[in-house]
Amino acid sequence: MFKRFILLALLVASCGKPPATPKAKPLLLVSIAPYRFLTEQIAGPDFEVKTVVPMAANPHSFEPTSHQVTKMGEGLVWFRIGEPFENKILPVLNKHNPKLIVQDLRDGISLIEEVHELSCKQCSMDHLDRHIWMSPKLAAQQAALIEKTLSKQFPEMQEQFAKNLENLSLQLIALDLEIHEILKPIVKRTLLVSHPAFAYFCKEYNFTQLSVEYEGKDPRPKHLEQILQEAVSQSMEIALALPQYNNKGAQLIAEKIHVPIHLIDPYSSNYFEMMRKLAHLIADPYAN
């Protein structure tokens, strides 16, 4: 009887214990969503990866709140890309978290210098294009830098990071070959775009982009007329709108030259799906 009482008491005591709090995963930060995907692929499930810029926001004009900056201070590594807000908050982050490792994913990349008419003053003061991930080959190069940075900070997981990088690199090589195959029938083409986010894609696959946006601002009537004349002269077949930007100018010109306009989000976290969608849209703009 006494033994039964002891067992019952232990059972009640164990039931009354609060559940153990799960250990927080190490936090990794990325400025924009495409790099969240790349970082998650390399870091694996033992890490939490957060994007600083919300999905619907324009990363070139984004300004984080004080609360968001405070939450960023909990990160161990931040993979930045050169957005304007980064330099503004970096001193604050360094003050609150001196141990934060900041890695610029532009390092080692030969950046494209933006044509003056297409340059986005919100993007950078140096007129260097930062939409690097739009080339799978360059995305693979950046993935290698992510792996190198993580391996240095978490050497006990270096072998796993290297294995994950190898798998991701093979997928990126396959993606690049797939896009080349999809676009093989297309002999050059100019893309009418609402924002000049496609320079690296165009360089890789032999296209050009004509941006309606002018120096990072909505176009004025005179500039719209110039873009319209150029669009007519180049016999365009497709226009691309981006959800983060004003697309009225691109829509207007697309209507005037009678070409379909399609919504594409270069900042999507679903990198492979976005890149394939873009390739198929260019290959067949009139497909449903």
According to DSSP, the number of beta strands is 8
Class of secondary structure makeup:
alpha/beta
CATH class of the largest domain: Alpha Beta
> Which parts are unreliable, with pLDDT below 50 for 5 consecutive residues or more?
5-14
Mean pLDDT: 88
Classify the oligomer. Answer: single chain
Order of strands in the sheet with most strands: 2-1-3-4
CATH superfamily label of the largest domain: Nitrogenase molybdenum iron protein domain
Rg over alpha carbons: 24 Å
Strand content: 5-15%
Domain tally = 2
| Gross morphology | globular
Helix content: 40-55%
Pattern of helices and strands? HEHEHEHEHHEHEHEHEH
CATH topology of the largest domain: Rossmann fold
- How many helices? The count is 10
Alpha carbon gap, first and last residue: 77 Å
Largest sheet: 4 strands, parallel
Instruction: Return the CATH architecture of the largest domain.
Output: 3-Layer(aba) Sandwich
